[in-house]
């Protein structure tokens, strides 16, 4: 029979029955005794055996292994951000790292290279923030096939249930890439060429040329026309190398634009 429980019980372990009781009132506080080290008892045959069972310690927060994996992913993201000069600083890194941690939660990193998963997470973050980067920019930086990285990106979207999300489904605006492609082509910023190309892209969008087409081809056609109109003598091969499309695709986009109402306008008409 136990007395009324104490307001401030004094725990005492009773090894015989493996209980933790109050040394004052006798109330059972815990039907188990926990010890830092192992203890042994003799069984009926006289052999020593381990008393009780071992309980693994549960650490607060992430385990050391998890922390290392997260840190490695963040380092990879940081390297890519600075290698490609992605704007946004810590904000874009944190966003991409959050996607990376979600990938870890779903065991997506197992069997895949950290750099590939990090690049896919950063690409999702760039699409979310409307940054002017294509998947091929990341694959070129990592020196891997765009199809390899594309497979990782699509699988990650499936795991994170992003397949129907606007981040993935929304069409990429070609105008986001014009300034970057212009600087890559000319080796410097040129607002006049960029502005003309942006006007041409806007005309393409009004004529529904954007629907069902990748932004790189539209940007290439607009940049080619804009560069020629401002006196730059670049070939289709030069433009194709900058925007990562083949010359045949670039030629098709130029023919399509020529057949629209805007195709007969002059540069002055575009600017007005």
Give the helix/strand class. mainly alpha
Number of helical segments?
12
CATH topology of the largest domain: Cyclin A, domain 1
CATH architecture field of the largest domain: Orthogonal Bundle
Number of domains: 3
Sketch the topology as an H/E string, one letter per element: EEEEEHHHHHHHHHHHH
Q: Which strand order does the major sheet show?
A: 1-2-3
- Backbone CA Rg: 32 Å
Average pLDDT level: 80
Low-confidence stretches: none
Distance between the termini: 97 Å
- Any idea what the CATH superfamily of the largest domain is called? Cyclin-like
CATH class of the largest domain: Mainly Alpha
Helix residue percentage: 40-55%
Number of extended strands: 5
Overall shape: it is elongated
Strand content: 5-15%
Main β-sheet description = 3 strands, antiparallel
Describe it for me?
It is a single chain. Strand 2 and strand 3 (28-30) form a beta hairpin. The termini are far apart. A three-stranded antiparallel sheet has the order 1-2-3, with no helix packed on it. The protein has three domains: 11-50, no CATH class; 64-169, Orthogonal Bundle (Cyclin A, domain 1); 174-271, Orthogonal Bundle (Cyclin A, domain 1), CATH 1.10.472.10. The protein is built from twelve helices and five strands. The chain is mainly α and 272 residues long. This is Cyclin-like domain-containing protein.
